[in-house]
Amino acid sequence: MKTTLMLCKVIVTNHAQARMVERQITNEILIEIIETGETKCKGITRGWIFKHYPERIDNLVRAAVELKTAIIVKTIMINWQLED
After folding, report:
1. pLDDT tens across 4-17, in order?
2. Is residue 84 part of a domain?
3. Disulfide: which of 19, 33, 74, 78 matches 37 by Cβ 3.0-4.6 Å?
4. How far is CA 11 from CA 18, 29, 43, 55, 82, in A?
5. What are the distances in angstroms from CA 22 to CA 16, 19, 25, 55, 77?
6. Residues 6+ positions from 71 with CB-CB distance below 8 Å
7. Which structural domain range is residue 32 located in?
8. Per the structure, how many domains does the chain have?
């Protein structure tokens, strides 16, 4: 999947696409996470974008991303716990 959000290209790796299917995360949910989720940086170009979904049993959904010339979604996780 490639799309342009807020003037930024988003690239979803094959691994992330497979995890989305496995974890029932639609493209629409991924876009919502990227556009409205919270962020946590891990280094200069890497980090997470995450969002709570109270209606889901696995209510904290996270996208592990790398920021280069695009937002590269490397994987999708559920039941994630934010650590300091």
Report:
1. 445 678 999 999 99
2. no
3. 33
4. 14, 15, 20, 27, 24
5. 10, 5, 8, 18, 10
6. 5, 8, 9, 10, 11, 34, 65
7. 8-77
8. 1
Residue 40, both tokens: 């946590």
AA identity, residue 68: K
pLDDT for the residue 84: 61
Helices and strands (H and E) in the chain: how many: 2, 6
CATH number reported for the structural domain that contains residue 61 in this entry: 3.30.2310
* Between 7 and 27, residue with greater pLDDT: 27
2, amino acid identity: K
> Greater confidence, 3 or 37?
37
Least confident of 11-15, 42-46, 56-60, 73-77: 56-60
